[in-house]
Amino acid sequence: MDRKRSIPPELMAQLTSVEGVHFYSLQKGNAPVMPGVTDAVAAAGDFLDTAAIMRNLDLVITVDTAVAHLAGALGVPVWVASRFDACWRWPRQQPTTPWYPTARVFHQSRFGAWSDVLVRLRQALSTLTERRP
């Protein structure tokens, strides 16, 4: 399942060029942190530490993982990149979910098509930063 929901780092890197945004990685494990991204959980001991870090972020952008569910449960704004054959929590018919009111869902248009998801995420992020004072 991880292979179906993982986004290649070179595609995710497209987001880091959005002006006025600083990115923090919440990914635990051995995955390398992309250039332009700060590892926010290197010293985190458990999910409680991750939750505390999330509470200090303006927005969490993630794939359908525990991070998405934790952010949603905490009421932290979260944008979920969802695969074409999405989990039932992310209904394909809408960009929101009744489970997490602060979540916005960006679905693949077809199986394996992460490029279109990243384009829409980048556009939404750019629009969001343009509204900042």
Write up this protein.
It is a single chain. By secondary structure, the chain is α/β, with parallel strands linked by helices. Helices cover 32% and strands 15% of the residues. The protein has helices at 2-5, 9-12, 47-54, 66-74, 114-130, and strands at residues 23-25, 37-39, 60-63, 78-82, 103-107. It has a three-stranded parallel beta sheet. It has a two-stranded parallel sheet with strand order 1-2. Strand 3, helix 4 (66-74) and strand 4 form a beta-alpha-beta unit. It is globular and about 40 Å long. The model has no long low-confidence stretch (mean pLDDT 86).
Sum up the structure in keywords:
globular; 3-stranded parallel β-sheet; alpha/beta; 133 residues
Summarize the structure.
The protein is α/β, with parallel strands linked by helices. It has helices at 2-5, 9-12, 47-54, 66-74, 114-130; strands spanning 23-25, 37-39, 60-63, 78-82, 103-107.
Per-chain topology:
Elements: H1 2-5, H2 9-12, E1 23-25, E2 37-39, H3 47-54, E3 60-63, H4 66-74, E4 78-82, E5 103-107, H5 114-130
Parallel strand pairs: 1-2, 3-4, 4-5
Outline the biggest β-sheet.
3 strands, parallel
Radius of gyration: 14 Å
Assess the beta-strand content as a share of residues: 15-25%
Number of helices: 5
Strands in their spatial order, largest beta sheet: 3-4-5
Give the terminus-to-terminus CA distance: 41 Å
Provide the helix percentage.
Answer: 25-40%
Strand segment tally: 5
Order of helices and strands: HHEEHEHEEH
Shape: globular
Mean residue pLDDT: 86
